[in-house]
Design goal:
This protein is α/β, with parallel strands linked by helices. It contains six helices and 14 strands. Strands 12-11-10-9-13-14 form a six-stranded parallel sheet, with helices on both faces. Strands 5-6-2-1-7 form a five-stranded antiparallel sheet.
């Protein structure tokens, strides 16, 4: 059994679990995911690793409730135990030091882009982070991104915080201000990732997106 040692609610259907899983935490890398099952009758849910702490032995996931099982997960209080927390699974992201890298997260995609930001900072890359949400009340992890970013910017669709508009509005500004960007990493809704790729393609900037489905 695995204990949920911390739980946070980020919006009506978005929540965080920090789970005590020392073996998983020791092996986690950016890009990995875990397979979660609440109990013996529950379905298996794949969740991208949003953070990990090897010293504490914990792994963090951010979940959006969209079906029966994820709504059941959202109802579990801090201190609860779940049956399975299997991982890390998948292929870790291949990250190399860049003189300058831009990391873009949109909505729930903010969570899986964070480990890549942290790793780039550890590698010595100059990091520019852009995160976007529909509105300020749905925003999360501003403090985490600010801690690991040399430059940090926020966009909201309704203009309630940061730049008004999509993350691509801010990315356009960044691309005009910085002519020496070596790589862009974008994780979020498919239209957002496609738009980011279309912006960087004419400039010849290597761009990585997440095609998890």
């Amino acid at each position: 059994m695995y204990q949920i040692i911390k739980r946070e609610q980020f919006g009506p259907v978005t929540f965080l679990w920090e789970v005590m899983a020392p073996d998983v935490a020791q092996a986690c890398q950016p890009g990995h995911f875990v397979m979660v099952r609440v109990d013996e009758t529950g379905e298996r849910i794949p969740l991208t690793v949003a953070d990990y702490d090897r010293e504490k032995g914990t792994v963090t996931v951010v979940v959006q409730a969209v079906g029966k099982t994820t709504f059941q997960m959202m109802d579990l209080p801090e201190g609860s135990h779940i049956l399975d927390f299997i991982g890390p699974l998948g292929v870790a992201s291949h990250l190399e030091k860049r003189n300058k890298v831009v990391l873009v997260g949109g909505g729930l995609g903010v969570a899986p882009v964070f480990p890549q930001l942290r790793r780039h900072k550890e590698l010595g890359s100059y990091t520019i982070s852009i995160i976007g949400f529909r509105s300020k009340d749905l925003m999360f992890w501003e403090d985490r991104f600010a801690r690991y970013s040399d430059e940090f910017r926020v966009a909201t669709d309704d203009g309630s915080y940061g730049t008004k508009g999509f993350v691509t509005v801010v990315l356009d500004q960044v691309l005009k201000e910085h002519k020496d960007i070596e790589e862009v990493i974008a994780i979020g809704p498919l239209p957002m990732m496609k738009a980011c790729s279309e912006m960087t393609r004419p400039l010849g900037i290597k761009t990585m997106v997440s095609l998890n489905s």
